[in-house]
Amino acid sequence: KWMKSKFIAVQGTLSLWGEKRSKIWSRIATSVAAGATSMQLEEGDFRVGDTVVIDRGLETRRISSVHPLDEGMIEISFTQPLENSYRGADHVHLGREQTQGLMAASVGLVDGHNIVVEGEDTPGVPMCSVNETQVCPYQNGLQGGVNLHEFAKEMQHYLATTGSPNHPNCRPCRAVSEMHYTGYIIAMAHFNRDSDKCPKDHGRIQVSGVAFNHASSMHLYHDYAGGNYPHDVPKNFQRAWTRRPFTWWSDPIWAELKVSQPTTPSHKIVKSSFNNTFSGNAFALATSGVRVFPTLPVVGNVIFRGGVGLNGAARRQWSSLKFNVDTMLPANDNAFTVTQGVGSPNDEYNSPQNLEKFANAALERFVLQDNLLVRAHLTALSPMVVTGNVITGSVRLQGGPLANPAPFANNVVNAPDDPACIFMMSSGDHGVSDNVVFGCRVGIGFRQSGGLAEGAVRRMRILDCDIGIQYFARGPDGMRHDSTPTKFVVSDTVLYAKSNRGGIGMTNPKVHSHMLGHPFPFPDWWNEGPQFSPLGHSYVSIDFHSEISRTTFAGYDKAAGGVAFAMGEAAPGDTSDADFHPLILSGLTFDGVAGESRIRASASTRGAGLGVRQCLQIDCDGLRNMLLVDTDGSLLGQPGTVVPRPQKFFDKLSYTDALGASTMEDLIPFPQRFDRFGQAIPFPAGVDHGAGGGLEYACLNQSVTVAGVPGCDVFFMDAGDWVPQPNLALGPGHRIVAIREDGGMIRLDPLHHGWALARGWVKRVDCNSSSQDPALTEQPESQHARRYGRVKVGQFGTHPNTSRLDATAGPVYTVPGIWREGCTFVSDWSAYRCPNAKHRPLVIEVMDFNHMDRRWAPVTVEVNDKWAPQGGAMNVLTGPAMMLPGKRLQTFHALGHAGLRHNIYFSADPPKHLRLHMLNAGSDEGMVVCIYYGVPNSVVAYVDGKRKAPLGGATPTWDNVVLQKLTPDMPHGTYYYDRIGVETGRPGYLYAVIRGGQTIDFKISHKIVLTTKVEVTSDWGGWNDAQSDNFFKSGIDGLVRNIALLVGVPPSRVSILGEGTAQKGLFWNEDTTSKDFAEWMWAQNQSMDQMPLEQWLTAPAAKGLASAAVDRANSSVLLQRSQFFAAAGVHHPGERSLLQRFEGSVGRRSWH
What we know:
By secondary structure, this protein is mainly β. The strands form 15 sheets. Strands 1, 12, 17, 20, 23, 26, 29, 32, 35, 38, 41, 42, 45 and 48 form a 14-stranded parallel β-sheet that branches. Strands 9-16-19-22-25-28-31-34-37-40-44-47 form a twelve-stranded parallel β-sheet, with no helix packed on it. The N and C termini lie far apart (90 Å). The model is unreliable at 226-232, 313-362 and 1104-1152 (pLDDT under 50).
């Protein structure tokens, strides 16, 4: 039933041997123009009367004459002139001699063999409804309301009156194009009538010199999985066959009879033509796992349309109209994989075990060699060998090992009508090599949906493509903290520009954890981007990079839109949150590619929004952290990096921020832009900041207060009424800075007007606006800068509420974006060229249990080369796009620099568990990180899962006030935690060294280091354990002592109920600190967190920093830095930094 009316079922041998021909296809030797009536071919056995197909099948021609030429060439003539021009083996692309003949068109025989097997598109019974779809509904029975007797009478009437069986609503169906009835040729097992459990033999097909017209659906190893066979036929053919002790051709009886063992049967398909212009089918070289006997190499055939499946599956196609379809639907990528060939339509209803599955990799490989596929798609799954073919249809290729020879090699692929010429599915170091690809939208596309992609491209020649190589595939799942290193490799490959010198060599490769499409074993080879709700979810991968080596880019010209590397372009469904994956470059050659045509990074950042597939608050981080690393100078002329320009740092935010932020600059976390006293640290001057945008007004000269004097009243809400305060009125012309305007009232900004007016409002009618409407300002000044101004390096702000501590003198940063000291902006690239730079990815991974449910961003990474707490390049990160509602991955991919310091701040409270990665760097490279925690608890580190002790003697306490400078050459994981704030006065900074290719984990501990000798735990409920050293433990050695040690309280400041003032030595003694420091504390009458500078510097813990500078200090005058240092004799950088912190606090009389 399922074989319809045209089939050949072979249980013995189908042997078709047509007239011999040496070769039935050839390349065109010399290019021909449209209108020509002849062409020269390199070779071929063509004859008068043959019909040939040319190039990609745009036209066929009948041969009228054949003339031999020198060196085996021939000239063929046609009955009609050519409509198109065609390239020959003499064609040279872009003037490069090495490309000669690579893009030559081919000619193949499709009709002319003396044996023809037809499943033609002939008319059937005239009972088809005339409608738009041209569907034949009688396959599933007569239409409703149709009376067969009356219908027959009407047909007889039209036959009598018109001479043909016509009907106004009926016509004959065509057997292939409308009814999908192709011809089937199936090799199947032969069961003896007396043994229905054990097959006796298997059919074999051997054809040469045969034309198959719509009859090329060949299945060489049918397994009886269709489901509608006689009940006595076994459904498990594999088991039935393998139960045989031996086959007849290997039977021991031959030896016993002293007869030579018969030759092992085999399938053979050579030098035949397959015309599938209607049906779309070709043949499947596939098996469910029982390769009964071998299939010899499929050699020298011409396949016109349709496709070939190597280890593909049986047909598994079902239309929305509920009838079986033999053809491959181009819109259904899955069909390309599983429909290359034949099988029962009822396979659709069977379990996957009964489908024709992919072959076992241990089996003998199918070989497809020296064939011409004309607009015929090829699906090639391992194990297979495909070599020497010309394919003008797309290839779906499961990448194999790239040893020489590779399984898919020495082929020419050209498929301009398809999304890509070669659709890749690969893993590990498997990929594609040693082929020519030209004239494609995408030459080689890695956009599989299943499996970890990785993959490689080696020794390929890619010409005249819109995009040479595109890679956007599946990587490890960052949501699951999978940091498995993965990479994509391109080597020893040449990419040529389009004929007009346009096109893209390759886009920046990137990965996401899950892609839209069907996973293996029924893969979608061409995903449409990352999965998102409700279709699933996908998040960026942690450790992926690309290595591009010994690769040549030829002919690309910026003026024609050509470029070697295009960053952040042409990826479907892309949220741009994965564009940070770096490219590691070496051994590049640029043939006729000027400097301006090598890189294009002009794509704008994108993705800001509240919805699915969007990044919160600002555009996604990818393009702001892209990286190209030139390891040998083949791109830049000397080793170095290419890094992005800052984008939209000073542009107006796309949303209305609840805290009044105007720009990305305003999203710098508060601890980073305010000092330990809560005073603001100004933003930098000299950057490309905006202007205006704030709510500013001026009191009108004609305004009159309730007291009758000129000016503007300030109103306060009191029991529902607006009540003016005459003593707080603002004079005419007074500058008014507001934080809000609504209902005809203006709310005053207390940071500008003072806290006395914190709840004050002014009538809008009494003022006029002195600033542009914020809604109309595309690039406003940031809120922070409007309030506190901007300063140059080392300057204090003029606003009274700005920092006066030297350690936190402005600005917070000096340049937005990536550290780029020594870099030059290349306008043609829209990126920075950084010779000798060592930019490296720095991944900040929140590991808390709720890392998908809460937000720690924006996160900032400020990089500087002065081992300073601020003042470098400022990178603001928002994290990956949201792919599930309410779930945002808190992993941040920043771009750092080896050898420098990186100050990291979170907008939220710090993570309980944090992991840092320094990627794509050698173990000889390192960086210093400083992370703001702001908690009294200790922070502990783990390397390779093992607890690591902090650097000995470096942890600051009140009796060990030191600032140990870490250097990038220290061992990986060197760290300490400063809970008292030696560097800036703000407590709670973690200092650590991380080295290339390694990770380090930090966890907030329940331990608190109080002094050099005392460490306690803060475990909740620990006070119930009398033996514990819990911070909250009762008794003299418990909570009271611990608070005294935590804050630095002398015994004279502690009173004990019923005991009076604490005695010397009760808290500060040789068990808790050094003898010198204990005695010094006994003499104090003020806690260390409240001490004046001159008194604090007398502590033994200050390690001799007290000097003549204290004697000269005037509590009301700030010392000049040079005077202070000169008097103190301070030279060590750590000591100098410490004294800088206190320079600004002289006169404050307190330190917290």
